[in-house]
């Protein structure tokens, strides 16, 4: 099979991963010099998870890198399960040993005595933390203790294997549902774990403010911020052109311009649009791509996202937020005064809704009093389907 032309969805790696050299380098240095922890912040689909994956590839010669997807954490015990398993799995993979994870995972489902035997074959801190979990299963300890033990394990494991450990918590904002307790624990352990570095990533500005930048928050100033911005135009254009080239297809400069205009450098969208453009060209038996082909592909992309955008628009936002988004969609950025005039309501009555939209990174504020919908594809969808403006 040929290598795919574009990669849509999932964690991408080179040659499909582009334009993040600076971010990778910066975080890599922080990791390798143990200088500081990092928090990666960016809107949905900007490429956070892929960045973590590539960071991992980049530093895995020097550190043990484990990622935890916090979306999968619905109760505190999940934090324990996911983190310990991620670490053990990363260790196995890196050092090409086999069977530890399987033995260790017995504590989560096997019979207590069998599981106990299984982990004693591993020994060390893995055995220790395995016993902790077995005690949890026997109701001898509670969830909170489990979380404390998770952080202890990370620390001990790093000491034991004599190599630095990096834990990446992706979608970190999901942990705020646990009332800040985790953050307190994390803080006390971050202070005392020289061999462990943390990377947090998420798509919520309030996460950043409440967890890392509010003076009374436990993690105040404990991590350096890396804001993920859209991929630069030249990088996107070079990428699309060179990917199409692998199939002997040409694309005009104006067509590349148009792709950027629509997708605004959001990686998920330019990969998807690139693919649709390619597919249409194949079906029409064409080996060149023009502006009108981009327009056609973009329209079908919007139709494809109908269900998702419809659900996002109607479920995630209040009535007032929906109206704000509707009027915001008319242009890339608009002044608050214009929105309030369109909505025939005083600007002051919009502040709470605006703040929430800003905090979830739905809306950006390029300058005071001016706002814009962050996700340009979503904006164009709203403009066409809700505002009813066809251009
Ligand atoms: N650096 C990149 N270069 C090219 N394409 C990328 C890059 N990063 C991400 N992508 C594309 O965007 C898609 C989504 O990326 P990813 O899952 O990393 O984003 P995310 O910010 O974690 O999204 P979500 O908010 O849904 O978790 C990928 O499947 C890939 O198609
Ligand atoms: Mg992600």
* Largest sheet features: 5 strands, parallel
- State the shape: globular
Unreliable spans:
none
Strand percentage: 5-15%
H/E element sequence: HEHEHHHHHEHEHEHEHHEHHEHHEEH
Structural class: alpha/beta
In whole angstroms, how far apart are the ends?
Answer: 41 Å
The number of distinct helices, counting runs of at least 4 residues, comes to 17
Beta strand count: 10
Radius of gyration: 24 Å
Descriptive report:
The chain folds into 3 domains: 21-227, Rossmann fold, CATH 3.40.50; 233-310, Helicase, Ruva Protein, domain 3, CATH 1.10.8.60; 317-385, Winged helix-like DNA-binding domain superfamily/Winged helix DNA-binding domain (Arc Repressor Mutant, subunit A). α4 packs antiparallel against α5 (112-120), α13 (291-316) packs across α17 (376-385) and α14 (319-328) crosses α15 (336-343). It is an alpha/beta fold and 391 residues long. The radius of gyration is 24 Å and the shape is globular. The longest helix has 26 residues, at 291-316. It has helices at residues 21-32, 48-59, 76-95, 100-109, 112-120, 124-137, 143-161, 181-191, 205-213, 233-245, 253-263, 267-283, 291-316, 319-328, 336-343, 351-359, 376-385, and strands spanning 37-41, 64-69, 165-170, 196-202, 223-227, 250-251, 288-289, 334-335, 363-367, 370-373. α8 (181-191) links the parallel β3 and β4 (196-202). The mean pLDDT is 93. The chain contains 17 helices and 10 strands. Helices cover 56% and strands 11% of the residues. The structure holds adenosine-5'-triphosphate (ATP) and magnesium ion.
